[in-house]
C-alpha cells in the first residue's frame, strides 16, 4: 500500500453501514419512511444468547464481494479503506433500536450487567471477522469509527471505547501484522491521544471543533491525524469553504495528516462543492515547497 497521504479522497473509501454487524448477527432491520433504519433490540441475556456467530454471514459476503469489485477497478496507486463501527456505537444501536439520545444504552453501560459485557464481546468477535474479510477482499487500510464515544464520561472511555477497539485491532493484526488502522472516537476532544496510544492506531480521526495541531503534539511521531473540516462549510459559500480548508491544511504537516471532514457529509451537500473541496486541497499541496 502507498503511505497514508494528506487527502483520503485520493483513495476509494468503502463506508458500509454501522448496522451491518448487528443485522448479520441476527437482528431484524427495517427502514421506515421519515424515521430511517429501525433495528430489533436486545435487552437481556436471553436476547444476547440468541445472537449468531457462525463464522460466515450473507450480509458480510455481499460487502466483501463489493470490496473485491471496487479494488479490481481501482488504479494501482489508489488505496481502498474498509470500515467498521466501534463496539460501543454498535452496541448502543442494538440496545436503542435506532437513532436516539442513547440514554438507555448509557444507563445499561454504567450498570454493566453481565449480559452487556457478553454483548460487547460478541460484537468484537463479529467485527474482527467482518474486517478480516474486507482485508482479504482488498481493503488496504481500515477505519474503526465510534460515533458516540463523546457521550461517555471519562471513567468509561477505557472500558467502552479503548479496550474494545484494541481487541479488534489485535484481532486484525493477529492475521495481518502491522496492518494500518485509523481510529475515530468522535467527541472525545482532549482524549484522542490517549485513545490512539491505547488502541495502537496508526492515525486518529478528529472532530471539527478540535484543533488538529493540539492533538498532533500529544501523539507519537509515527501517528497521524485525520480531519477535520466542518461539514457545514460545504453548505455555504465557496470562499468560506476554501478559507476553512486553508486553515486546516496550514495547521499540520502534510506528512502526518489525512485530510477529511470532521464528520460525515450532510444530505443537502452539493456534489459540486465536494469537487471544489478536492481541488482546493490538491492545489494547496501542489504549491508547497
Task: Give an overview in words.
- The longest helix has 24 residues, at 114-137.
- Helices cover 46% and strands 14% of the residues.
- The chain contains eleven helices and nine strands.
- The protein has a seven-stranded parallel β-sheet.
- It has 289 residues and is of the alpha/beta class.
- The protein has a domain at 8-205: TIM Barrel (Alpha-Beta Barrel).
- It has helices at 20-24, 45-49, 58-73, 87-96, 103-111, 114-137, 154-175, 192-199, 212-216, 238-251, 271-286; strands at residues 12-13, 29-32, 36-39, 80-85, 141-146, 181-185, 203-205, 224-229, 257-261.
- Mean pLDDT is 89; it is low at 1-5.
- Helix 7 packs parallel to helix 8.
Concise description?
Helices cover 46% and strands 14% of the residues. The chain has 289 residues and is an alpha/beta fold.
Entry keywords:
289 residues, alpha/beta, TIM Barrel, 7-stranded parallel β-sheet, two-stranded antiparallel ribbon, 11 helices, disordered N terminus
